[in-house]
Amino acid sequence: MSEETRSEPVEPPDAGPPGLEIRLARPDELAWIGDLTAAIYVAAGYISPDSTYMAQLRDAASRAREAELLVVVQDGEPTGTVTYCPHGSSWAQLTAAGEAEFRMLAVVPAARGLGLGDALVRHCITRARESGCVTLRLSTEPVMHAAHRIYRRLGFTRTPERDWEPQPGTRLLTYALAL
pTM of the full predicted structure? Predict the structure, then answer.
């Protein structure tokens, strides 16, 4: 399937996999979330350990204050995170009025394949709809193929006209979901 292929949107379910909870991150989880996000991005080769972006990935406290920092808990254990950014949040990079975006999706490697990343994205879709948004947006690196599959399966479509470079040589692809 090409990146431009349109998928029919899937309605987010009321619940994810059994034993799953998605909630706002607690203060005692912020360091873990920052470490997880940075470690996932480095281990996957998305960024180098000396990247200036590392500070943002580790800054879960700012994300919790200035956006909605979500954590997925599977059977009582935190296993992943995503940052939901309403328009106007200092963490929103792509939005216009009536839009939201999400960023920094990360799932513990041992929990991959359990549908947790999918559940986090679905939660963001539900959150955006509840907020009255008409579009949910995201940026992603070209090499994040597993994430691209989730986005397409949930009805996101590529918006190449909005692709951008946060720094020279780092091209980000964009997707949007009409709500």
Answer: 0.88
